[in-house]
Structure formats: C-alpha cells, structure tokens
Amino acid sequence: xxxxxxxGLTWVTAAALLACASASDQTVVEFDPAQTQVGFTLDTLLxxxxxxxxxxxxxxxxxxxxxxxSGALVIDATSGESGNSSRDGRMHKNILxxxxxAEISFTPQRVKGHVAPQGDSQVEVEGTxxxxxxxxxxxxxxxxxxxxxxxxxxxxxxxxYIQWGLKNPSTFILRVSDKVDxxxxxxxxxxxx
Length: 193
Description:
Layout: H1 2-24, E1 27-31, E2 37-43, E3 48-62, E4 69-81, H2 85-96, E5 103-112, E6 119-131, E7 134-147, E8 150-159, E9 180-192
Antiparallel strand pairs: 1-3, 1-9, 2-3, 2-9, 3-4, 4-5, 5-6, 6-7, 7-8, 8-9
C-alpha cells in the first residue's frame, strides 16, 4: 500500500510540475522586417499624404495565461518617405528630428484576448509608444491570423503627434491634420519558449 501511495504522489508531483511548466511557457512572435509594412496617412486641406516607414526589428513575448508581455517593435524613423523628397526632408528635419530620434518603438506590456494557434483572433495589446524622445500609453486593437507556425497581425491607430509635442507642419496656406493614421501589417514566426 505504501508503494502505491508513493507512486501516486510521484505521478501527482510530475503532473503538477508539467502543468506549471506549460503554464509558464511563453508565446513568442518574431516579426520579419522584409514582410512588414508600416504605413502612414496624413490629411491636409488640399490632399491626403500617404507614406511608409521600415521595421528595424520586432519581437514580442507573452504569457497566454496572464497576458503579461515584453519585447518591442522598433521602426526606423529615418526610413520615413512619402514620395516627395522636399516634403520628406522637412518631415525628418523639422517634425520627427529623425537624426536625433532615430527610432520609434512600441513596447507591449499586456495582451488581452486569446491568440489561437491556428486561425483568426482579435486581441488588444496594451503598451508604450515611444516617439520623439517621449513615452505615451497606447492600446492597439489587432487582428491576428496564425497558420503553420506563421503569424500575421494587422492594426490601425491614430497618433496625435501635435498633442504629443511634435511641431505642427501647417503653414498659412496649407493646413495639416493634427493626427496621423498608422496602419501596420506585420508577418512573423510564431513559437513557444
């Protein structure tokens, strides 16, 4: 009877250790800069400006149970372009000051919602958006699609750049919106750690 009890306790202990190990496993997404698009749209009185930035690197880790997250999406601020070299020059020199603030980043702190290992999911990612040397709390609503170890995530959000301390590019003749729309379509590898 003692050996059966001992054997049963060993199984219970092993099962508890496995449960703890699987609960502490983190989901890891490493985004591919070559397959990730970061677009921006800025409305002006005369027309709408479309442009893009390049992702430098992106890695997010999160615990599916608690939602706790870490990592960062890092955008190369110097890569921003809209197809007009003089306008882009003003954007980099006067607005973004990208020679001084060369990176724009989003650091996740919590993922709300369940990410399915296959198929579509809708999640919210709470974190900090770092722009022009300052941090701003930001929650991103993201559609996530997972398939065979790959993941795509899309999100849309507004950046109130003037409210956040960047220079207003409006002139006497040209009025520019005080917010810029950002659209991200990111692709990466999905794994566990």
